[in-house]
């Protein structure tokens, strides 16, 4: 038996979350937003289905936006031609009055009255039609504006689902899509692509010694250092609790080892300080370069195996995957 997706409308949730933030006067930071979002949707961790649903909602909205844009253009053209018709009928009426004044014998009184009334009726109907098309046009423009806002909410919402609230890096959910994309890009273009998976050593001891909050700050610190050593085209992902993954396009094993060494150097030169005490941070890394015939998951798995070897041969080391 297949179970139906939960009756959750992500756009509505996003709206409510933003409203709650506004009501409390809180800034819409990723942390604040995700706190309210999760509270409303009561999800423990976002499932892939949610991401698919968001994608679908996004596509529907884009189509709706196209249809609305067409309707807006059509009504604008209709308004223009109604205005022109109104003006030309008003001009005809003016000419009729003028002709009658100049040559009263042209039309007898009754025929003139009938034609005038008819023209006035048509002018009045055209003017009503103009007013009603004009109001529909305004409605379409404002609906389109709302669709735009919903699209923005959805984009924000999607970003939140793919972001780790603590460090602001991508999370596992964001990784899947991106990894597949980067692997395809590298394989199509014949370029190199490498990943570095690193895991903080004895992180439990940091938590135990300094407390969980300090542990959190250490994770943020490391994420910031990693960002600093990466190129703009690289990506940083929080892969697990104290485990991060670097995606390095256009990079071979040599380049990836250089990045891992640089991060180690920067971390040793920029220690995390807690009450003037240096918190020693070391990490182990596994590095793998993409093979021609493998997918992203297999690549990360090889990096994971290399990391496992690094951990079990002394920690603080870098291992290269076969
Ligand atoms: N403060 C904090 N701790 C976390 C977070 N996520 C995971 N952890 C902690 O990270 C620790 C990981 O412990 P272990 O898996 O034993 O690994 P480790 O102590 O780093 O040891 P090795 O990896 O074997 O060197 C656990 O204590 C988790 O509670 C987080 O978001 N914040």
TrEMBL record:
Q: SMART domains, per this entry?
A: GGDEF (SM00267)
Catalysed reaction(s) here are: 2 GTP = 3',3'-c-di-GMP + 2 diphosphate
Which parts of the sequence belong to the GGDEF domain?
191-322
Gene Ontology biological process terms in this record: cell adhesion involved in single-species biofilm formation; negative regulation of bacterial-type flagellum-dependent cell motility
Which terms in the GO cellular component ontology are assigned?
Answer: plasma membrane
A GO molecular function annotation here is:
diguanylate cyclase activity
This enzyme's EC code(s) = 2.7.7.65
Q: Which PROSITE patterns match?
A: GGDEF
Q: Which InterPro entries does the record match to this protein? A: Diguanylate_Cyclase (IPR050469), GGDEF_dom (IPR000160), Nucleotide_cyclase (IPR029787), Rev_trsase/Diguanyl_cyclase (IPR043128)
What domain of life?
A: Bacteria
Q: Which organism is it from?
A: Chitiniphilus eburneus
The molecule here is called: diguanylate cyclase
